[in-house]
Structures are given as structure tokens and as C-alpha cells.
Amino acid sequence: MSEDSLTRVVDGVYVPRRGVYTLDPVHTFVSFGAQHLVVGRVRGRFADVSGTITVGDTSTDLTLDIDIDPASLTTLNDIRDTDLRSARFFDVANFPTMKYRSTTVTVIPQNRWLIEGELSVRNVTRVVRLEAAMGGVTVDSQGMARVGYHATGSVTRTDFGLTTDLAKESSGVVVSGDVLISIDVEATRSRT
């Protein structure tokens, strides 16, 4: 395989060329959704996301390192966004950064990965599993190798201290405890 190739097959899985890929903040989205009033879903996203993906020699030698600014969240509703940023939920004044750091990566069928890592929210760290797939690799208009990934997972918000009196206020039906996470990433390989 040529060193100039964008991808390679390792252990039967397509992986990008070795290196450190920096997340492109314009093309990286961390979104969330939670059941609302039993009949719908509240959706939102964090606009300020940074980090790296480090690709090594094997199909599981992949490290994900992401920082998220919880103050950058939007659900397209100012009242709800203010509440979510408050001490009732993310408490962004006291906890300005959320972090996800992968710890293990396992190849699963259909060219996908199961990524286990530690998510830190409000200084509470829990193991969170993500299922990921590579969207592709290309050379962008700047001549840089660009890789895309999509990952999904879920968390229980109360595990991170994101608790309020919602259960008392609504008989437990305003917003579910389980939150779905969707991550879409584009990252460029650092020039060496």
C-alpha cells in the first residue's frame, strides 16, 4: 500500500491513513434527543466542539478525544436553552467543559467500531459506548486528508447529576432520563 493512499485495509476493516486528525468545528456536530411528554422528542446540539482522532497501526488503534462547550447548546428555544445551561442541568458557569475520551475500540461487523470511553459532565465521569462508522476519506480543497465518522450512543442523564424536580413537577413524563447522542465528525489530518 502506498504511503500516499488515503485508506488502507487493516484486519479486514477500512481505516484512514495513520496520523492525528483535528476535528473541523464547522463540520462537526454533537446532537442529542430525549423523549418529551411521552409523545414527542426534544432535540438539540452543541455548536462548540473540538478535539482529535488519532489513527494508529491496527484497526482498533483509534483514539477519540473530544471537548464540548455545554454553553454552546441550542434546542432552538431560548427559554429551554437557558434552563439547560443553568445549575438545574449543565451548570455551565461552574462546569464549562464536557469531555469524551475513548479507552477501548473493538471492530464489529459491517466495517463499524464499538468505542468505549469516558464521558465527563459536571465533573462526573461515566463509561459511555458509541457505535461508529467511517463515512469516507477524501482530499479537501486545501489539499488535506479529510475523514468523516458518524457515531451514536445513549446516556442516562441522572448518571451525570442532570437531575431536577421534573419527576415531581410532571409525574415523570416531561423529559425522559435516557438521552440519545449522535456525533457527526469531519477531521483533517495534520501535515507532517
Record the SSE blueprint.
Elements: E1 7-10, E2 13-16, E3 19-23, E4 29-36, E5 40-46, E6 49-55, E7 62-68, E8 73-74, H1 78-85, E9 98-108, E10 112-121, E11 124-139, E12 145-156, H2 166-170, E13 175-189
Antiparallel strand pairs: 1-2, 3-6, 3-13, 4-5, 4-13, 5-8, 6-7, 7-9, 9-10, 10-11, 11-12, 12-13
Q: Which fold does the CATH topology refer to?
A: Lipocalin
Q: Beta-strand percentage?
A: over 45%
Helical residue percent?
under 10%
Q: Could you say which overall geometry the principal axes of the C-alpha atoms support?
A: elongated
| Lateral strand order in the biggest sheet | 3-6-7-9-10-11-12-13
Secondary-structure element pattern, one letter each: EEEEEEEEHEEEEHE
How many DSSP H or I helices? 2
Structural description of this entry:
The protein has 192 residues and is mainly β. It has one domain (7-189): Lipid/polyisoprenoid-binding, YceI-like (Lipocalin). Helix content is 7%, strand content 56%. The model has no long low-confidence stretch (mean pLDDT 86).
Give the key terms:
192 residues; mainly beta; Lipocalin; 8-stranded antiparallel barrel; two-stranded antiparallel ribbon; 13 strands; elongated
Summarize the structure.
By secondary structure, the chain is mainly beta. The chain contains two helices and 13 strands; from the N terminus they run ββββββββαββββαβ.
